[in-house]
Amino acid sequence: DSGVTQTPKHLITATGQRVTLRCSPRSGDLSVYWYQQSLDQGLQFLIQYYNGEERAKGNILERFSAQQFPDLHSELNLSSLELGDSALYFCASSRPGLANTGELFFGEGSRLTVL
Amino acid sequence: DAKTTQPNSMESNEEEPVHLPCNHSTISGTDYIHWYRQLPSQGPEYVIHGLTSNVNNRMASLAIAEDRKSSTLILHRATLRDAAVYYCILRDGSNTGKLIFGQGTTLQVKP
User: Fold this and answer.
1) pLDDT tens across A23-60, in order?
2) A8: preceding bond cis by omega (within 30 degrees)
3) Distance, in angstroms, between B83 CA and closest chain A CA?
């Protein structure tokens, strides 16, 4: 158990819909990272937050948005869903002070299926 | 972001050591070498990381070449549970610290 909690574990929805994935980082971790893993793209970095502020942006589509709240949990919002958005979405967190060099702790992921 | 090159797949026998190579010829002075692994149906799991010197922990050892252009992850005695995709990643210690995953090496462990 990494200490990172992601909900829901599984989600099935239809094209055009909007979903929200939630991540609770390990206690005391200030950085949150979101990754997307699909069969043909591997693990893709989407976005990083540090203590509520956006820190880095990767291959995140404009239809996707994220935020980190004052209690440090994070949400990834996916809208106008397409079949290609079906994937595993992972959240990770890292310790304060080691945000750039220490290890990332990954959750078990949220599996999104768009039909 | 500096890139890494790993073999697509490797095989090992149970109870034998495994050496997983990684080339990173464009590594910069502030890049840390990180290794993660992903077991089937799980999130990636940290294995080990280092900057210049060799590192050991309870899971593995990391051998870093003197010029830092390559590294090797060493699993001292492979078990069936070590079958996973192993990712070698360069993490910029002076920047945001985000991890950029490549394709990794799929390790098969035979009983």
Assistant:
1) 999 998 999 999 999 987 789 999 999 999 998 899 89
2) yes
3) 18
